[in-house]
Structure formats: C-alpha cells, structure tokens
Write a structure and sequence with these properties.
With 926 residues, this protein is α+β, with helices and mostly antiparallel strands. It has 33 helices and 29 strands. The strands form 6 sheets. A 7-stranded mixed sheet has the order 17-29-28-27-18-25-26, sandwiched between helices. The relative contact order is 0.09.
C-alpha cells in the first residue's frame, strides 16, 4: 500500500482545481497536517483534497479526509476558519469513528488472550488524580477489561472486548472528561509532548511577566499605605494590577481550571480542584475590592501563585519527559519505508500452520513428559538425560525443513525469472511501501546496514546479522537459507531477501516495546496506595478549608479568605501523588540500561523484598551451549585401543543424524564435525523425549539418552559424568542384519560452560543475606558438583516442573519471598509460581516468556544490579512519602492560623513537588 490513496472522488476534486474556487482556503504551516494541524512525520501521509495531494500526520487523518472527499463534503475545508484538532467536522462524519476502520485499527490494536489491546497517547495529564479519573471512567464502560494510564510518559494501555465496545467510544469517553487521546506512534507522540512543553513555556513566560509587573505595583500600594497615598492613586494602581494580572489568570492559569472542571463534571476531585478554588476566590475577591474600593487586593499573589505553580510543573514535566524518553534508545524506530519485491501468502500460511501444529504437539508432549519424569525413582533419573530438549529438537527440525524448501523454491523461481525479465520489469516489480502496510507473506529486500523491520525467513543463500539490541551480544550471526530472522536485528552484510512471517507490531522488537509499556502501565500496590491516599487527602483539604473559613469569619472576617486560600494551596498533596510514579519510571529505565527489562508493574517492589533466589542450571547459570568433551567407544569395550579415525567415523554418523536440528547438543556435534564428510541419511525420524533414528548405508542408527538408544534393554553401560567432568551425555547405537537388539557404539560427553559472572553474582547475593537455591531438571550428579563449586546454599537435581513448583511453594510457606531465574520457556510453571521471576531469554524466546522480567543481554549479574536498584527505589519512595507527609502536616497549622500568605504557600507547594522529583532522579545514577 502506498502513502497516497488510490481511490478518491475524482469529479469533486477536478471541480476544485480552479484556483479561483480555493481562494481564502485556510492552509496549515509548512510541515503540519492539512486536516488537524499537527506536525507530520517524514515522509508524511497524503490525501488528495481540492485537486491536490495534502500532507497528513497519520492514517487517521488520511482516512477521515478521504471519507469527507468521498462523501462529497470537500466544502468543509473551504468553510472552516481555522485548523485545529477540536474544529467540528461535518455532521455526517466524526474523526473518532474513522478509528473503527479495520485498516486503521490494525496499526495500533492487537489481540491478546481473546481481547483487544490498544496503546494510546494521552495529552493534558497533570497529576495522579488525572490517571485515576480516566481509569475509573473507562472502567464504567461495558466491555473494558483493564485500563492503565502512565502519568510519566503520557501514555495509556486499554484492554477491552471489541465485540461490546468500539475503539471510537473509548476515545470519545476520554475526550468527554477533558483529555485528548490518539493512537500511539513514537514520532507523533514525541511531537505532542514537545508541543505541550512549548505551550507550558509560553504560559510560564506570560505568568513571569505578569507577576513581576503585579508585584511592582503591589509594592507601591504597600508603601503607599504608610505614606498617605491618595485614594485615586491607590485605585489607579489596583486597576493597572488587574490589567496585568488578567492574562495571567485567564491564559496562564487556564490548565488548572480546565482540569478542575473536568474532575468536577465527573463528580471527582483532583489536585487542581483546591488550587483552582484558591485562585478563583483570590482573584474575584480582589476584583470586588477594586470595583468597590473596599478591602485588600492580592493580584500579586494570584500572579505569583500561578507563576510558581507553572514553574514547578514545567520543571517536573521536563524531568518526567526526560525519564520517559530514556527507554526510547532501547527500541529501534522502525524504518518508514521498505522495499517490497513480491509476495507469497501461501508459503507464509504453511509456515504458520506448522508452527501452530507444533505448539499443540508441544503442549501435549510436555504434559506426558512431566508425568513420566514424576513417576521415575531416583536411580532411573540419574541414568537418563533430560528428555525435554529432544522434543524441541524435533520441532525445530520440522519447521526448518519446511522453511528451507520454501527458500530454495523461491531462489529457483527467481533465477528462472531473471533469465527472461528486463530491467523495466525488475523496476516495476520493486515498490516502496510503508512499514505499517507490510503484510504477512510479503517478500522484502533488506538493504545493507538497515534494521530488519519484522520477523521472517531468509530466502537468500546467506546473511550476517547483529542481534545486539535484542540479546546484548555484539557478535555477528551468520544465517543460512531458511533460517529464522528476528525483527530488530540489523543487516551487517550484503542486501538479502526475506519472507515476512509477522507484522512489524508483532515482531520481537515490537514485543519488547509492548512488554516495557505493560510494565510501566501497571501500578504496584505502593503506587495504588499513594494515589488512594492523595485522593483522600484532597477531599479532607476541601472540608478543612471550609472549617478554617468559618472559624476565621467568626474571629476576623478580613482574614477568612486569605487563610482559607493558604490552606488550599499549601496543603495540596501534589508531592504525595508524585512520590511513587516518577521513582518507578526512572528505576525501570535505569534497569533497562542494564539489559534487565521489567514486564510487570510489581517487579521492582517485590525485588526489594526477596529472601531467596532459585536458579535453573542449563541456560541460566550456564550458557546453554554445550561443547563436545570426549567420545568414549563402547563397542566390544575397545576404548583403550580406539583410534582417532574410529572416533571421527562415529562422530560423522552422529552429526549426520542431527542435521537440521536446532538443539544445543545437535549444534555441538555439528560444530565438532564441521571438517568431516557426513554420510547421507534416509528415513530420518524424531522421537519426542527420546532422540533421533535414521538409516545410513543400510544400517539403522539411533542417538539419544541411553534408554532410548538401547530400546530400554538391560545393559551394563556406565555413564560416568563426574569423572569425565561432563554435564550431559548421549549414546549412539545401531541395529544390524535384521537383529532386534541394539548395540551401543559410543557415548558422547558434553560440558556446558558456567557463565563468567555467575560466581560473583552469587557471592554478592550471599553478602546481602539472600539464600541461593538450584532447581534443575538435569539428573546428572555433575549438577550438584556445579552448585557446590559456586557456593550455593542448596541444590536439587532431576526435578520435574511439578517438583520445582513444590520446592518454591515450600520456601514460600516458610515465609520466604522467592525470585526464580529460568530460561523463560521450559520453566514457565515455576516462573509463574514464584513471587517474582526473571528469565535469561534469547531473541527468539521473547514471545514465549512468562516471567515478570527478562535479561536481554545474557549478563546474569544484572540480577544484583536489579536488587540494588530496587532497594534504592524503595528507599527513595519512602523518603518521598515521609517528606510529603511531613511537609503537608507541618504547614497545615501555620496556614490555618494565618501565618502563611498565599504567595508563600505557592512557593512551598512547588518546592515540595520539586524536591520529590529531584530525589527520584537520583536513581539515574544507581
């Protein structure tokens, strides 16, 4: 799909090509949307209006304007007197309804657990009460499952049933309560925040000028009281003060009034309600005194109050904006245009069907394997390899064979086509399309040095990519034809062709962005308690201010208004509402810089409370990349006389059986045999939870764990992992001359290297008083030796998924708070059972991760950094709470007694909020 819509109301457009008709047409500024006036991305979207292509900021405006043209309502653009987002559209159309269009929804709505999820940008959020107001109002709508608003980055996440509620109704509801929401897109979201920041700066400048002028006239009035100033002179200065304060009150102060009015209309209160009451009472009381010539005026206090409030919020807004944009460097901004050269929907559908079939088989086999392992006694387990990875081996091989065939067929077709095609044909075949319009089944060309827009299958012979953004590993990875390539990687070689198997939004890099958004949207209990306390505080302040007014009106009516205003301003709990969200945002982004990605809102709070850390072994404490250590010949017990030639022959046979497999053991065998000639195989068959079987030169071979290789026959084979210093082993066997018995040929021993930083990480945890436990499915005694060498408190091997969950529950029953560290896939049940969990996940694992956090760079010592940052976050949040409560409590009595003037109350409240923000920003150096 191109940026310029192909279908338009041609007759209407041609009518307006006459320039005389379009005289007086209101045009936007250069680089701004013709429809709504917002800044446009590069390259922009386009729609043909009044005979000319017009720049649009998003597909929503593009579709809305196209609909206006097709409905014959282009006169709307000639009749409008201004361009803005709130300008009314023709009655037949509304802009929000355009978001119900399937093509538009596909750009920002995705499915999750049978429900729809949308990421939205929200403008005009000012405090925690604003987020609560939106969440509570949307929760009242039928069909809403969950709504989470992030104050710091001005974004929200909505989960709902689309059958019961259209997205346009959600957006309309948000607009009705005074906030503007639109689909999230990084470039337009940043433009929105920049525009909001500029508006705040303009209001702040006007407030600064007005407050200086008002204070200058106020000083003259104050001194005039002691120097017999004439009445008409005093009144003149009051009128001048009113003149300079009016733009401050009605323009610079308007954000407070609109926010308060939105809350009152929704029958709620937020931080701006007491502030607005204080401003309105002070200004109109001064206006009354100016008109009647009786009483005191406080225009200087009104102007200074607004200035200090805006200054505090401007600094706070920029601090939150800086904290929120820290994470943007972690996610690649997808290229706007990609080069599409063809499409093969059928091939993509075949791959997806195979993956779905494999997933169903995987679930069934895992349940069966779990039951089998649970029924084994200790002796049986000690002589068996962990069977689960062999199943993953068979599944990967199935998919890889299919993708390799598709890639080979494509290359053959390309070769035949290039032999007969012309240069003009090739140019016509290639077309630049927007990233959002990319579909599953499209075949694209990825240029050298560019980011890979989406997940797909490599169709070219080879490619070299870097997945440093996804895994943290800077090494270049060589991909072969038919291999899986993840979105977010970078092409570091020559251009290559790939078949798109996932939409850009569903790619691995898109998933990382979603996981981070989910974590920052979800509120931990501490944040929920802070929001609840702030709302409770606001309501009590309003009641208390009424009592203060009554009390002072009885004692001294002239001080009643100003004491009440001071109470409303000084005790506004803005700092209390900021205590938690700003700290959580900075900490989350700081963790992300270590490669520790939180995917749940409670992660930071729970990490600060952990007492135990449980580790899986393979792929967690170790690299999960075994190396071949030794080949032990078993046939006729001739190990002592074994020659290198015999070992090479058996290694070649074993490697041939593993061709096409993605299992770590297969990779180790193929790596060891890379210089050997591998024999061809026939009747290759994978056995879940067992191994591989195939015919080579008329002989039937098997490789896998010992029971599978010998078909569960009684044997006296001893697999000595301890003496071999190995972590796992597989046996190669054969069946000759129609014999029913299997003969063991060789045992291959493998070692999985321990991660370099594992020992230091475990020592640090012990220094913090945290107990470390190993829970591994590896039945070998070497697992226990490894745990002892690392200095772990306890270790358990040969565990089924159910056994691991039992151990976690036992620790929890004893009062422990457990962090489970696993591989994110095989450990899904125990990750879910732990209080908090993390997984060391590779790029291809992210979609299946069920943990609360992910370590993207493979550095396990990120766990100690996460613990350190979570502890500091908890301390800072508690400090912010204490400061906010102490400040509000200590200023209340002096303000109620009349010792705090309104302007001083404004300074105090602003400084209180600023202290909380700056204290939270210390986490950037954690």
């Amino acid at each position: 799909m191109s940026n310029v819509p192909s279908s338009m109301a041609s007759t209407t457009s041609q009518y307006y090509e006459d320039n005389s008709i379009t005289e007086g047409l209101v045009l936007p500024l250069a680089g701004h949307c013709f429809h709504c006036g917002d800044p446009v991305p590069q390259p922009p979207f386009h729609a043909k209006i009044l005979g000319k292509p017009r720049e649009m900021c998003c597909m929503g405006c593009q579709l809305a304007s196209q609909s206006i043209v097709e409905a014959g309502l282009e006169q709307y653009y000639l009749d409008r007197s201004e361009i803005n987002r709130t300008a009314s559209l023709p009655t037949q159309l509304t802009r929000l309804e355009a978001y119900d269009h399937d093509e538009i929804k596909s750009q920002f709505v995705y499915a999750q657990d049978g429900l729809s999820v949308a990421e939205l940008s929200v403008n005009n959020l000012r405090c925690a009460a604003c987020t609560w107001l939106i969440e509570s109002r949307l929760d009242e709508l039928e069909g809403i499952s969950k709504c989470q608003v992030n104050l710091t980055n001005q974004r929200m996440r909505v989960i709902w049933n689309e059958d019961k509620l259209p997205i346009s109704r959600i957006l309309a509801t948000i607009n009705e309560i005074g906030y503007e929401a639109k689909p999230y897109r990084q470039d337009t979201h940043e433009a929105m925040l920049a525009r909001h920041n500029n508006q705040m700066l303009i209001r702040l400048g006007i407030a600064a000028l007005g407050s200086m002028q008002a204070m200058m006239y106020a000083v003259a009035i104050y001194f005039g009281e002691y120097s017999d100033m004439l009445i008409f002179q005093r009144d003149f200065l009051r009128w001048v003060s009113l003149f300079v304060s009016t733009p401050v009150f009605f323009y610079a102060g308007i954000p407070f009034f609109t926010s308060a009015w939105s809350a009152i209309r929704a029958r709620q209160v937020n931080m701006d309600v007491p502030v607005s009451i204080a401003l309105i009472v002070t200004f109109f009381a001064s206006l009354y005194a100016t008109i009647t010539g009786q009483g005191e005026t406080y225009y200087d206090s009104v102007s200074m109050f607004i200035f200090f409030l805006l200054a505090g919020r401007y600094i706070e807004h920029n601090a939150r904006l800086k904290a929120a944009t820290m994470a943007n460097d972690l996610v690649v901004v997808e290229p706007v245009l990609v080069q599409k050269i063809a499409e093969d929907k059928e091939a993509a559908e075949l791959i997806l069907q195979q993956l779905k079939k494999n997933e169903l088989e995987k679930t069934a086999v895992n349940e069966d394997v779990s039951n089998q392992v649970s029924n084994l006694d200790t002796n049986e387990v000690s002589t068996s390899a962990n069977p689960t990875p062999n199943f993953m081996q068979s599944m990967d091989a199935n998919v890889h064979r299919l993708t390799s065939k598709i890639a080979q067929d494509w290359q053959r077709a390309r070769t035949q086509q290039s032999a007969i095609s012309t240069t003009a044909d090739e140019a016509k075949e290639k077309q630049m399309v927007t990233a959002h319009s990319l579909q599953v089944g499209d075949i694209i060309l990825v240029e050298s040095g560019s980011e890979i827009i989406s997940d797909g299958i490599l169709l070219s012979q080879t490619a070299t990519v870097s997945q440093s953004l996804l895994t943290g590993e800077g090494d270049l990875i060589i991909k072969s034809q038919g291999d899986y390539i993840v979105g977010g990687a970078q092409n570091d070689s020559q251009p290559f062709e790939m078949l798109v198997t996932a939409l850009p939004a569903d790619s691995q890099i898109g998933l990382i962005d979603r996981l981070m958004n989910r974590a920052m949207s979800e509120k931990p209990k501490l944040a929920q308690q802070a929001d609840k306390l702030a709302r409770w505080f606001v309501a009590r302040i309003l009641v208390l201010s009424v009592l203060v007014f009554i009390g002072w009106y009885i004692v001294d009516p002239s001080q009643a208004i100003w004491a009440t205003v001071a109470v409303l301003v000084a005790t506004c709990p803005c700092a209390l509402s900021l205590a938690t969200p700003i700290a959580l945002t900075v900490a989350t982004n700081r963790l992300a810089s270590y490669g520790f990605l939180t995917t749940r809102g409670h992660t930071l709070q729970t990490l600060a409370e952990i007492t135990h850390v449980a580790f899986d072994k393979t792929g967690t404490l170790t690299y999960g990349k075994p190396n071949l250590l030794n080949i032990e010949l078993l046939k006729d017990n001739d190990t002592a006389t074994a020659t290198d030639e015999q070992k090479d022959t058996l290694l070649a046979i074993a490697a041939a059986l593993e061709v096409g497999s993605r299992h770590p053991i297969a990779h180790a065998l193929l790596t060891a045999a890379y210089q050997l000639h591998l024999p061809s195989t026939q009747a290759l068959q994978h056995y879940p939870a067992g191994g591989v079987e195939a015919v080579i030169d008329g002989v039937l071979y098997r490789i896998g764990h010992v029971d599978f290789a010998l078909n569960d026959a009684d044997n006296d084979i001893v697999i000595d992992l301890v003496s071999q210093r190995a972590s796992s082993a597989v046996v190669l066997s054969c069946q000759q001359n129609d014999s029913v018995t299997w003969q063991a040929l060789a045992c291959f021993y493998f070692n999985d290297k321990v991660r370099d930083s594992a020992k230091a990480m475990l020592d640090t945890l012990k220094e913090l008083g945290i107990e470390t436990v190993m829970l591994t499915g590896d039945p070998s005694p070497q697992a226990l030796v490894l745990a002892e060498s690392l200095g772990m408190h306890s270790a358990y091997n040969g565990l089924s998924p159910t056994d691991k969950v039992t151990h976690i529950q036992k620790l929890q029953a004893e009062g422990g708070v457990v962090l489970m560290v696993g591989d994110g896939i095989n450990d899904a049940p125990v990750l879910a059972a732990a209080d908090v969990s993390t997984s060391i996940a590779g790029a291809a694992d992210l979609a299946q991760v069920s943990s609360d956090s992910i370590i993207l760079n493979g550095q396990i010592d990120a766990i100690t950094a996460a613990k350190r940052i979570s502890d500091k976050t908890e301390r800072i949040i508690k400090q912010n709470f204490r400061w906010a409560l102490i400040y509000n409590g200590s200023v209340l009595i002096p303000a109620a007694l009349g010792y705090v003037p309104p302007w001083l109350a404004a300074i105090g409240m602003s400084l209180s909020s600023l202290f909380v923000v700056l204290n939270a920003l210390r986490l950037k150096r954690a």
